């Protein structure tokens, strides 16, 4: 049975091609996927699918906290999400909220004064 591993704390220089021989030393690699943002830049984590449970356990024991390129990788079993389950959206993180401001009318602050509201 195939086992998917989570690989975290990846170097920004890591590619699927640099990871493959590292994991192949511990068994047959079925697939490798480094997660990227909308620009194609690595998010610093990915997934490696090993052919058997034994291969996956060997990779975890042999590679967790081991140096790859310039960072110590974190290797563990991936947590499977039930089919159809979606992650809760994150809140916060900046951006314009549309509230606040000095006038109290929900126009937001932002440092710009409305032409029709000279209250400040």
Quick synopsis:
This protein is α+β, with helices and mostly antiparallel strands.
Q: In terms of topology, how is this protein built?
A:
Elements: E1 3-8, H1 16-24, E2 29-36, E3 42-50, H2 53-63, E4 67-68, E5 71-72, E6 74-77
Antiparallel strand pairs: 1-3, 1-6, 2-3, 4-5
Mean pLDDT: 83
Distance between the termini: 68 Å
> Order of strands side by side in the largest beta sheet?
2-3-1-6
Strand content: 25-35%
Number of E-state strands: 6
Q: Which shape, going by the Cα principal axes?
A: globular
Largest pleated sheet: 4 strands, antiparallel
What percentage of residues falls in helices of 4 or more residues? 10-25%
Number of distinct helices: 2
* Rg measurement, Å: 23 Å
Order of helix and strand elements from N to C terminus: EHEEHEEE
Low-confidence runs: none
Structural class: alpha+beta
Mind explaining what this structure looks like?
With 120 residues, this protein is an alpha+beta fold. It has a domain at 3-37 and 51-70. 17% of the residues lie in helices and 26% in strands. It is built from two helices and six strands; from the N terminus they run βαββαβββ. The strands form two sheets. It has a four-stranded antiparallel β-sheet with strand order 2-3-1-6, covered by helices on one side. It has a two-stranded antiparallel sheet with strand order 4-5. β2 and β3 (42-50) form a beta hairpin. The protein is globular and about 40 Å long. The model has no long low-confidence stretch (mean pLDDT 83).
């Amino acid at each position: 049975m195939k086992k998917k591993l989570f690989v975290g704390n990846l170097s920004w220089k890591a590619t699927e091609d640099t990871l493959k021989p590292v994991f192949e030393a511990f068994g047959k690699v079925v697939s490798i996927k480094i997660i990227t943002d909308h620009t194609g830049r690595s998010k610093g984590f990915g997934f490696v699918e090993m052919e058997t449970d034994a291969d996956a356990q060997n990779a975890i024991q042999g590679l967790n906290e081991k140096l790859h390129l310039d960072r110590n990788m974190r290797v563990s079993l991936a947590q499977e999400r039930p089919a159809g389950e979606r992650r809760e959206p994150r809140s916060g993180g900046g951006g314009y909220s549309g509230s606040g401001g000095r006038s109290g009318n929900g126009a937001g602050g932002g440092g710009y004064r409305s032409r029709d509201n000279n209250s400040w």
